[in-house]
Q: What sequence folds into this?
């Protein structure tokens, strides 16, 4: 791997996290007129359509054993992860979910080490960085508020973390198959949408496209569908291919930082000194985790 490709991989990861860190605003707006499963279904259908139009070439699987990997990637990263996260938010506090979801790099690193031992070597710096980042994220998320556990909601959030870690490993495996990133991402979207259909069927899902005549709904769905889904999953999967699962996953630490500053800019929420300290600790944890956390 050349230094140039590594730099591009880091830039792709940072760009993806910046977008993902701002999606909560669009989701919050859309929840006024859509159910969580409706938002997921529409955004990924839109994302799939965009990838199909941008790269209409058909993906030809070279080995039958590859297809199940795409199936499970769609199930984990496109369907289960988002459903578990959204359901968790209905049972526990958003601050709890934010902190728990930020532990995803830890689980990803452990699984990567177990299944890709030859290339994903963990060092003490990674664990020190993890603790540092988590302290910073706790400062950001709670900011003086009382910490309260909710067993069911917190368990669902933790389950989403484990599902994302599995997705990260599957993406790494797909990257080694040699398929174009656009085509492999589109294939995982396809299976993710298929798995969403049962969830939509048991809920009060409404097709009701008339809702998109409201420009604010249309704009935010386009942002989620084209930006956060189609484009960002491509850039994230590219980063995983170039950097590996561990180095890419630690950028997830930045999501709460991006969210806080976006809230201040867009929603005019107040920044505090504790949040500033938390952001600094989180960035320090990211830097520590990135150092010597990848290949031997």
A:
């Amino acid at each position: 791997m050349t230094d140039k490709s590594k730099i591009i991989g880091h830039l792709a990861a940072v760009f993806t996290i910046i977008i993902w860190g701002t999606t909560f605003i669009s989701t919050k707006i859309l929840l006024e007129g859509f159910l969580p499963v409706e938002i997921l279904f529409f955004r990924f259908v839109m994302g799939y359509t965009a990838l199909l139009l941008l790269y209409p070439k058909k993906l030809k699987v070279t080995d039958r054993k590859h297809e199940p990997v795409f199936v499970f990637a769609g199930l984990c990263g496109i369907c289960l992860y988002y459903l578990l996260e959204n359901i968790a938010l209905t049972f526990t506090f958003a601050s709890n979910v934010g902190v728990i979801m930020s532990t995803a790099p830890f689980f990803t690193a452990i699984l990567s080490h177990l299944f890709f031992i030859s290339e994903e070597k963990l060092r003490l710096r990674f664990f020190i960085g993890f603790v540092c980042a988590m302290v910073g994220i706790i400062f950001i998320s709670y900011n003086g508020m009382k910490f309260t556990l909710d067993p069911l909601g917190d368990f669902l959030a933790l389950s989403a973390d484990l599902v994302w870690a599995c997705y990260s490993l599957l993406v790494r495996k797909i990257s080694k198959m040699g398929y174009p990133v656009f085509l492999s991402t589109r294939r995982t979207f396809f299976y993710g949408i298929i798995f969403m259909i049962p969830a939509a069927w048991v809920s009060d899902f409404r097709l009701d496209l008339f809702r998109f005549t409201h420009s604010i709904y249309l704009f935010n769905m386009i942002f989620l569908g084209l930006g956060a889904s189609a484009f960002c999953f491509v850039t994230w999967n590219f980063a995983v291919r170039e950097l590996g699962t561990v180095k890419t996953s630690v950028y997830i630490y930045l999501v709460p930082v991006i969210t806080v500053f976006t809230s201040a800019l867009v929603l005019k929420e107040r920044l505090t000194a504790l949040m500033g300290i938390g952001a600094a600790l989180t960035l320090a944890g990211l830097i520590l985790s990135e150092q010597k956390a990848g290949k031997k």
User: Anything to note?
Assistant: The mean pLDDT is 83. Residues 3-116+148-250 form one domain. The chain has one domain: 3-116+148-250.
